[in-house]
């Protein structure tokens, strides 16, 4: 494999290209008109504009991307995450064109891409399941019957869903009909499929996922877990590895279940098996993501592996160079997602120009980003600016490094989630490890961040005023030659 096209944009495109370059592989970027001056476009060996800003006319145009591959004699396509990364039809077209798709087979994507077929496949290996319906709910009568058998509260979920779309919480029998109709309508709109199923609502759930890696020769390993319970709108904001609640025994059980889920769909490459863990540490299969995850860097930090390189090696039909017994956890890692969102205004996107953009540096800090100072954040795509990662010898050091890195990250022009992430990392619930996916609901209100920001601004103003007053006293009288030195002279306000 001598040349790879990255069918994606932003930080993940740049991240894939860097690993490819280290392997001596040439890279091709495809970009929309909105990303013409983006860093990933400049970094690639070759770059081709494939359409206007809307993703439907550019990054989702699989036929155009394959056409570029043929023109430039590309050997493989890395899809990153999002866009076409879990599109089975695209994977088939890539294979039919004689190009290697750096990811699992289209068949594995189809099995795991539908939550119902994924559950059916995993069930054959006796992977624990959340109680609920066996398959899609066909009508209201069946929904009511299953709801009574499952018990309340429960969730009505879209079969083809993700990211919280097509998901409805139902707390009593009278709500079933309305919430089912709303879930089906939203599922149809978001995924083109209105199939829904019922699942018991797990109390105090933690969202814990297992990273798996499989080759084409039946070798599968699990690369431990990631804790992804800090979420807003059912989407992750902070991730860490390992989890603070898993025992070695539970880690092994979940890891082996993740391997079995991979076997159930004959998986190949890097993937993630997601679980819900309740307040009694019972775990239940949730779904499998058949691609690289946004939060994969925390796994890389604790294992020392480059997951993109491993994906490429598997795609080149190489065997895994290590087994399960060769793997061990090294320290602790955290990732915060830096979104252009306003946490004080219900995390609404805050699109604009990055007037100031200075990333943190130093020991144990990594930044995966796709922007530079002065760039506009396009309105057409996900508002994530960067992923900020820290690594330490233990959880406390990883948290301390992350807080230091957040304080050094300078962004003006847009509101970001950095302040919110700092708030979370210092909260007693997070520090103690006693939190779940309801962290925002139980511990956060927008006015908390507004108050905190106001207090910081007030302190900064007071210190600034004091320094100004002190500087006025530092003078050299002409008749004495005396210099009054302020003890604050070398201090500075950040």
Main features:
alpha+beta; Rossmann fold; Dna Ligase, domain 1; 4 domains; 8-stranded antiparallel beta sheet
State the helicity in percent bands.
25-40%
Average pLDDT for all residues: 91
Number of helices: 16
Fourth-tier CATH superfamily name of the largest domain? ATP-grasp fold, B domain
C-alpha geometry: globular
Radius of gyration: 25 Å
Uncertain spans: 474-494
Beta-strand share of residues: 15-25%
In whole angstroms, the N-to-C terminal distance is 48 Å
CATH class of the largest domain: Alpha Beta
Number of domains: 4
Question: Biggest sheet, in brief?
Answer: 8 strands, antiparallel
User: At the third CATH level, what is the topology name of the largest domain?
Assistant: D-amino Acid Aminotransferase, Chain A, domain 1
Strand arrangement in the largest pleated sheet: 13-12-9-10-11-14-19-18
| Assigned CATH architecture of the largest domain | 2-Layer Sandwich
Content-based structural category: alpha+beta
Number-wise, the strands total 20
Structure notes:
The chain has 494 residues and is α+β, with helices and mostly antiparallel strands. It has four domains: 3-102, Rossmann fold (3-Layer(aba) Sandwich), CATH 3.40.50; 131-200, ATP-grasp fold, A domain (Dna Ligase, domain 1, 2-Layer Sandwich); 206-447, D-amino Acid Aminotransferase, Chain A, domain 1; 459-494. The chain has 16 helices and 20 strands. The chain has helices at residues 10-22, 39-43, 62-71, 88-96, 106-113, 115-123, 140-150, 176-191, 248-264, 296-303, 307-315, 395-408, 418-426, 428-432, 439-443, 446-473, and strands at residues 3-6, 26-32, 46-51, 76-78, 100-101, 154-158, 167-170, 196-200, 206-214, 220-232, 235-241, 269-277, 283-289, 332-339, 341-342, 348-349, 356-358, 365-369, 384-392, 410-412. An eight-stranded antiparallel beta sheet has the order 13-12-9-10-11-14-19-18, sandwiched between helices. A five-stranded parallel beta sheet has the order 3-2-1-4-5. α2 (39-43) links the parallel β2 (26-32) and β3 (46-51). α4 runs antiparallel to α5 (106-113). The longest helix is centred in the last third of the chain and has 28 residues, at 446-473. The radius of gyration is 25 Å and the shape is globular. The two termini are 48 Å apart.
């Amino acid at each position: 494999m001598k040349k790879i096209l990255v069918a994606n944009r932003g930080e993940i495109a740049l991240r894939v290209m860097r690993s490819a370059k280290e392997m001596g592989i040439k890279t091709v970027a495809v970009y929309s008109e909105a990303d013409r001056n983006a860093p990933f476009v400049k970094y690639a060996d070759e770059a081709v504009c494939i359409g206007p800003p809307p993703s439907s006319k550019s990054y989702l145009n699989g036929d155009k991307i394959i056409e570029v591959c043929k023109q430039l004699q590309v050997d493989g396509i890395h899809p990153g995450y999002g866009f076409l990364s879990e599109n089975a039809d695209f994977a088939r077209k890539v294979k039919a064109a004689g190009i290697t798709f750096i990811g699992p087979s289209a068949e594995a994507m189809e099995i795991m891409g539908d939550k119902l077929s994924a559950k059916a496949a995993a069930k054959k290996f006796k992977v624990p399941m959340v109680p609920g319906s066996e398959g899609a709910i066909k009508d209201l009568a069946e929904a009511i019957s299953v709801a009574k058998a499952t018990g309340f509260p429960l969730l009505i979920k879209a079969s083809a869903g993700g990211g919280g779309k097509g998901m409805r919480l139902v707390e009593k029998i009278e709500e079933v009909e309305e919430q089912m109709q709303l879930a089906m309508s939203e599922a149809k709109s978001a995924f083109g499929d209105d199939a829904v199923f019922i699942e018991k609502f797990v109390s105090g759930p933690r969202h814990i996922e297992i990273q798996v890696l499989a080759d084409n020769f039946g070798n599968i390993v699990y690369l431990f877990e990631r804790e992804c319970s800090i979420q807003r709108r059912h989407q992750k904001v902070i991730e860490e590895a390992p989890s603070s609640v898993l025992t070695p025994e539970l880690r092994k059980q979940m890891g082996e279940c993740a391997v079995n889920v991979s076997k159930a769909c004959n998986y190949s490459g890097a993937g993630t098996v997601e679980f819900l863990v309740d307040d009694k540490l019972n775990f239940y299969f949730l779904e499998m993501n058949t691609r690289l995850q946004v939060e994969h860097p925390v796994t890389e930090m604790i294992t020392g592996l480059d997951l993109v390189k491993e994906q490429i090696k598997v795609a080149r039909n190489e065997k895994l160079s290590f087994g399960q017994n060769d793997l061990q956890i090294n320290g602790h890692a955290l990732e915060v997602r830096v979104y252009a969102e306003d946490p004080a205004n219900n995390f609404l996107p805050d699109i604009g120009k990055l007037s100031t953009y200075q990333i943190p540096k130093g020991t144990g800090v990594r930044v995966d980003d796709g922007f530079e100072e002065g760039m506009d954040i396009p309105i057409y795509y996900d508002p994530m600016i960067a992923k900020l990662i820290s690594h330490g010898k233990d959880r406390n050091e990883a948290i301390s490094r992350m807080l230091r890195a957040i304080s050094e990250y300078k962004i003006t022009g847009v509101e970001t989630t950095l302040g919110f992430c700092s708030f979370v990392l210092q909260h007693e619930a997070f520090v103690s490890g006693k939190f779940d996916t309801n962290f925002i609901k139980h511990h956060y209100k927008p006015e908390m961040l507004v108050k905190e920001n106001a207090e910081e601004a007030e302190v900064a103003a007071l210190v600034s005023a004091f320094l100004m007053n002190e500087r006025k006293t530092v003078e050299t009288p002409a008749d004495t030659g005396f210099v009054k030195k302020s003890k604050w002279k070398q201090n500075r306000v950040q």
